[in-house]
Write a structure and sequence with these properties.
- The complex is a heterodimer of chains A (143) and B (63).
- Chain A has 143 residues and is mainly alpha-helical.
- Chain A folds into two domains: 1-58; 60-143, no CATH class.
- Chain A contains five helices and no strands.
- The longest helix of chain A has 33 residues, at 110-142.
- Classes of the chains: A mainly alpha (143), B mainly alpha (63).
């Protein structure tokens, strides 16, 4: 384990550049729907690789905090998604609205479903992680 | 876990940032250790003790 503040900032900078490149690619280049999901997979893999590298630039206390945030944040995100799904299932009218959106913009290929599935699974967990981190930071401040 | 880092640091006239740099951790992490909000591993504890020229048990104690 080698803590490196400089390394962390470099990785953060690359991540920001990568996100800007992704927005530019989606809005300016406007790739076809055949390429977009694959580009998304490459983008996600690059983000994961950089995040993995950044983890090893943290010191052991920060690593412990990040692990704890994921430990509590992931189930929190999944639980909230479960509540949303239950709400949708028990409210057919709202489900119909969502179904109409999908009918208007139908995903055509299995890859589209795959990317949507990964996003629907990962996004709530990532949000849960940040919520947990916020609560942990507040708890530390108030302790 | 109780520790004497704050006192030892004051004796050496080191800031948190200075000590954090010497033991190669983030200043926020050192702050958490100093205030007992985080417990260091044994290697980190030994590193902290070493910069003060003391033994681990002279820096860290029981609650």
């Amino acid at each position: 384990m080698t803590y490196s503040r400089k390394g962390l900032w470099i990785v953060r900078g690359i991540l920001l550049l990568l996100m800007a490149a992704w927005i530019w690619y989606g809005m300016v280049v406007r790739p076809s729907r055949d390429i977009l999901p694959w580009a998304g997979v490459v983008f996600l893999l690059a983000v994961f690789a950089l995040a993995f590298r950044a983890y090893f630039y943290l010191d052991e206390i920060q690593q412990g905090d990040r692990m704890r945030a994921w430990y509590y944040g992931s189930p929190l995100g999944i639980a909230v998604s479960g509540v949303v799904i239950l709400y949708l299932v028990t409210n057919p009218a709202f489900l119909e609205v969502l179904a109409n959106v999908f009918r208007r913009h139908p995903p055509h290929k299995p890859m589209d479903y795959f990317v949507a599935g990964v996003l629907c699974t990962m996004l709530p967990q990532a949000v849960g992680n940040y919520v947990a981190r916020t609560f942990m930071a507040l708890a530390k401040r108030n302790a | 876990m109780k520790n004497r880092i704050k006192v030892l640091r004051a004796e050496k006239n080191w800031s948190q940032a200075e000590l954090a740099e010497r033991i190669n951790i983030a200043r926020q992490s050192l702050n958490a250790i100093e205030n007992g909000k985080a417990d260091p591993s044994l290697p980190l504890g030994m590193r902290i003790a070493k910069v003060f020229g003391l033994r681990v048990e002279d820096v860290f104690g029981e609650d």
